[in-house]
Design a protein that fits this description.
By secondary structure, the protein is of the alpha+beta class. It contains three helices and five strands; from the N terminus they run E-H-H-E-E-E-H-E. Strands 1-3-2 form a three-stranded antiparallel beta sheet, with helices on one face. Strands 4-5 form a two-stranded parallel sheet. A hairpin with a 7-residue loop joins strand 2 and strand 3.
Length: 125
């Protein structure tokens, strides 16, 4: 194990195993409603990079632990770019749109080798 890797604890491993086996059943999302001007993908990307700079987990990839079967580790990677999905929507459906999007995507498992977080930018165009 290298200095940029951290083994997950027993509870974290159970959480990740359950998520992988159950197609993302233990995933969660948080919605932040903002009112105001259009937020560009570039501005959100810059803000996410600042968050990643401050929080090591946000700049870490999920990896399988080669030393132990069915165990995971986080590998810090300064070059990791978290996924930001820009999704167009209608103004009239703002109360329910994210719920439908979540239903469509919540069963996706966390891919091994990728970051643990993902951002969705739901914009009215």
């Amino acid at each position: 194990m290298t200095s940029n890797q951290r083994l997950l604890g027993s509870a974290e491993n159970v959480f990740m195993q359950t998520s992988q086996q159950s197609k993302g059943d233990v995933r969660f999302g948080h919605v932040l409603h903002l009112q105001g001007p259009y937020i560009s993908l570039e501005l959100l990307s810059t803000a996410v990079k600042h968050l990643q700079h401050r929080h090591p987990v946000l700049r870490s990839r999920l990896q399988l632990n080669p030393a132990k079967a069915n165990r995971f580790l986080l590998e810090e990677d300064q070059t990791l770019e978290l996924t930001i999905r820009e999704i167009a929507r209608n103004r009239a459906d703002h109360m329910n749109f994210w719920l439908q999007e979540w239903r469509n995507r919540e069963k996706e498992t966390t891919p091994i080798g990728q970051g643990l977080a993902q951002f969705w930018l739901l914009q009215v165009f």
